[in-house]
Amino acid sequence: VRLVESGGGSVQAGGSLRLSCAASRSSNIPYCMGWFRQVPGKERTGVANINLDGVTRVADSVKGRFTISRDNARNTLYLQMNSLKPEDTAMYYCAAASGEICSFEETRYNIWGQGTQVTVSS
């Protein structure tokens, strides 16, 4: 599976963006897919994840503002980001995990996209 993110960009605080992550066609649909973000000089952190059953988990820092979803028929993962804040500025990565545990542990994810930049200005 190959992952390609899109939808990043620059927006003012309070604005919205929708990230997409397209997965190449595969007979093995990842059980868990997630979004992570990283600021230069800091560790990459989990933002949200979703399993095949649609059960989601969202980091406290974005709860109520970000929504993760997936369209298995289109092999696409989404991250709807509303009420964006300057502290949301980061490179956003989507990732797929082959195991059957969905968490924010990076080591569980074996396939990563190249990232898409999100910049929020005040």
Radius of gyration, in angstroms, nearest whole number: 13 Å
Biggest pleated-sheet summary: 7 strands, mixed
> Which stretches of 5+ consecutive residues score pLDDT under 50?
none
N- to C-terminal separation? 37 Å
Percent strand equals: over 45%
The percentage helix is under 10%
* DSSP E strands, number: 11
What is the overall number of helices?
Answer: 0
Helix and strand succession? EEEEEEEEEEE
**What class, by secondary structure content?**
mainly beta
Overall pLDDT: 94
Shape: globular
Explain what you see.
- With 122 residues, the chain is mostly beta strands.
- It has no helices and 11 strands.
- The protein has strands at residues 3-6, 9-12, 17-23, 32-38, 45-51, 56-58, 66-71, 76-81, 90-97, 109-112, 116-121.
- Strands 2, 4, 5, 6, 9, 10 and 11 form a 7-stranded mixed sheet that branches. The chain has a 4-stranded antiparallel sheet with strand order 1-3-8-7, with no helix packed on it.
- Strand 4 and strand 5 form a beta hairpin.
- The radius of gyration is 13 Å and the shape is globular.
